[in-house]
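Fold Annotation — chain and its backbone
Next Lines — sequence and tokenised fold

***
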Amino acid sequence: MISISTNALPSLNRAGVIPFPVRLRLLSAYTRTRQPFRKLRPRPRRRRSTAIMGGKRSLLLDNNAELAIQNMANTMPTSCKELGNTALTTLGAMGNHAALEEMLKRHIMNVDNVNYKEACKMFLEIEKKNHESEHIFAVPFQLGILTCFSAGVLSIPLVFHLPTVEYFNEHFVTAEHPPTKELETALEVGSWSWNWMEPVLGTSTFLLLSMQYMRMHFQHLGVTPYTHHMKRFRGKRLADKFPQYNPSLLFAYSDSSPMYNPKHLW
């Protein structure tokens, strides 16, 4: 076995005398002998200065951080009117109605070359036109609300109230009347009336479920429901009435606006 001095390893390595696998092992051993492994000590963590305020532990910020926070608090926008164009456009693309209102006002300022106050006056005209004839558009929704409310309220006495059940049975069902002993409580009345109320309530529930399932498939096919059709009609009406403004912005504003103006509910 040939012994090689560790001091001669670098020169032999440069000369290429030692084969590569052997050279790699020898150089590793040479490095370990010249620079022994030292265990690294963990770096001590810096402690944050804290104080006890009101029984709670809070961080003490330096003056620069406090000043920066104060400046951010002073300049924080509290309404869409104070937002920049980038943030306002982002909110408008997400369908935010207040942001689209402000975008439309600024668009009016740009097109008509007027100040903000005059742009708000023109915006009120656009808003009034947008909600024109809305009481006609709201009729199907109002009928749906009235029908669902009436059906829900009437279903209770039609099942559990004995005089109502007897009247309904006499005029619409004509089923055999059970003995008085079996109709002493509301639950017993319900067990009797359920013979003819179960098909009615069950079928109506299944009908509503089927209609909801059908509506979902319509949406998958891109067939828009009644509400979207009415909103598109309003947007087209705005674009025709105010052709000097951007039609896409008018369509987006009309689409984000509710079908019934909330100001008319109070």
